[in-house]
């Protein structure tokens, strides 16, 4: 998602995080425990034998500046331990965490405090709002530690409240707010310091589904305004797929797969990941553009003709419909042999293709979730054209494609297809020498 943003709309103030072979063992004999992991013993066995608990084992990956990086896994898989090592709330047993190249393990206590105040904010699932403090005071809480004066704190807090849609609530008390709104205050508190890194540990997990989806959208919207590096912990794959640019999946302290949501859905690394992926609502994750197939396309340069050659072309080929593009691949309309015949009835001269466009064939936006296609598809007379934001034709979605998409455990969406060159309509066809059925060079 962050790749598709138009440039210039977003301020980027983000940092890269490298997690360099990081281990965390809880217990006083970590080396012994690590050795047993290397020998292949399970986390449970090691705990029973040694009393040492493997929190994180050899995590190694990079979080790029400005992306939402989701860490997923079952409860106890090490997510919280991992994220707490990113601001050194927990120190790794081995390995390094680099924030913009800086090894945070080497920071002096003072630099570490500065990092936590200025650069990294954390949002928890249940951060306690102070009941006796107003929403504004709760939001500003912590800013005084950053050395900000009262006026500055208030200004920052008001701005943060505005960002999360709570303008006007500053004077209220937490118990006057719904659970969702309280979570917004938590987010506002994290945003008030204007951090370049946000660590969110199951921040939305306690919210009910509708509010949760709302908060996810909120987060994506905030990313459009000012892009931060967000490390988002979740145990919900739908959530991960929706907001994550990259997702890491953890199991028993180990990172078993890192990839884009797409990569993980298409090629789960093992059975554990496959089990996760099976439950995913693929129709919410994949977009029309992901499942669009190539179709029979024609180009007509001349607006005043085209119906006759297109009709002959369709009759000569095996195709029912032709998707008409401009020479710049902008989608124009769909014709069928039936619509062409009807348009040509009682007409002797050349006739423009636009007179034969099927009128109840709406275009589908490339970024429309597959889940939203069922309505338009149910009444569609033909496979519907998928069109990018700038009007380019990307292919078609048919009812069959849609049914096939639904009919599987894991959704291995077809890999992108080779683009088919549109056929240049030759007004003289079939009498001209060139054969329009061959793709134009
Ligand atoms: N302070 C601690 N002392 C001992 N073991 C811990 C401690 N914190 C976490 N663990 C263990 O580390 C593992 C990972 O825990 P955690 O990171 O909280 O998982 P998650 O956030 O994925 O649910 C668990 O087995 C947990 O029991
Ligand atoms: Mg946790």
TrEMBL record:
UniProt topology in membrane: Peripheral membrane protein
Catalytic activity: a quaternary ammonium(out) + ATP + H2O = a quaternary ammonium(in) + ADP + phosphate + H(+)
EC main group: translocase
Family annotation (CDD domains): ABC_Pro_Gly_Betaine (cd03294), CBS_pair_ABC_Gly_Pro_assoc (cd09831)
Location of the protein in the cell: Cell inner membrane
Chain spans, region Disordered: 406-441
Top-rank taxon, per record: Bacteria
Record's subunit section: The complex is probably composed of two ATP-binding proteins, two transmembrane proteins and a solute-binding protein.
Protein name listed in UniProt: Quaternary amine transport ATP-binding protein
The organism of origin for this protein: Comamonas faecalis
Underlying gene: proV
């Amino acid at each position: 998602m962050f790749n598709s943003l138009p440039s210039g709309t977003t301020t980027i103030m983000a940092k890269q995080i490298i997690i360099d072979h990081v281990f965390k063992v809880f217990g006083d004999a970590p080396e012994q425990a690590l050795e047993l992991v290397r020998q292949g013993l399970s986390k449970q066995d090691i705990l029973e034998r040694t009393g040492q608990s493997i929190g994180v084992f050899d995590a190694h990956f990079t979080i790029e500046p400005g992306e939402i990086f989701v860490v997923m896994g079952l409860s106890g898989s090490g997510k919280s331990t991992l994220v707490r090592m990113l601001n050194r709330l927990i120190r790794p047993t081995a390995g390094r965490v680099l924030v913009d190249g800086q090894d945070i393990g080497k920071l002096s206590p003072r630099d570490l405090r500065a990092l936590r105040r200025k650069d990294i904010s954390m949002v928890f699932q249940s951060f306690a709002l102070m009941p006796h403090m107003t929403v504004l005071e709760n939001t500003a809480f912590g800013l005084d530690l950053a050395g900000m004066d009262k006026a500055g704190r208030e200004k920052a807090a008001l701005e943060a409240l505005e960002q999360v849609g709570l303008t006007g609530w500053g004077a209220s008390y937490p118990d006057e707010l719904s659970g969702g709104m309280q979570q917004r205050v938590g987010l506002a508190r994290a945003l008030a310091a204007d951090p370049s890194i946000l660590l969110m540990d199951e921040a939305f997990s306690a919210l009910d589904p509708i509010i949760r989806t709302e908060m996810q959208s909120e987060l994506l919207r905030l990313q459009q305004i000012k892009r931060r590096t967000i490390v988002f912990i979740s145990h919900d794959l739908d959530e991960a797929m929706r907001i994550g640019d990259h997702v890491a999946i953890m199991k028993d302290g180990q990172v078993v797969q890192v990839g884009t949501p797409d990569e993980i859905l298409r090629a789960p690394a093992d059975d554990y990941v496959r089990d996760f992926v099976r439950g995913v609502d693929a129709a919410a994750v994949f977009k029309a553009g992901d499942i669009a197939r190539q179709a029979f396309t024609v180009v007509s340069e001349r607006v005043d003709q085209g119906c006759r050659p297109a009709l002959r072309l369709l009759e000569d080929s095996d195709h029912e419909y032709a998707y008409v593009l401009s020479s710049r691949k902008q989608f124009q309309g769909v014709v069928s042999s039936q619509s062409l015949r009807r348009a040509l009835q009682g007409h002797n001269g050349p006739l423009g293709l636009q007179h034969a466009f099927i009128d109840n064939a709406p275009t589908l936006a490339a970024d429309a979730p597959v889940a939203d296609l069922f309505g338009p598809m149910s009444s569609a007379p033909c496979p519907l054209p998928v069109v990018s934001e700038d009007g380019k034709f990307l292919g078609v979605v048919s009812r069959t494609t849609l049914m096939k998409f639904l009919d599987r455990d894991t959704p291995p969406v077809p890999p992108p297809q080779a683009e088919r060159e549109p056929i240049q309509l030759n007004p003289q066809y079939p009498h001209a020498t060139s054969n329009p059925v061959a793709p134009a060079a």
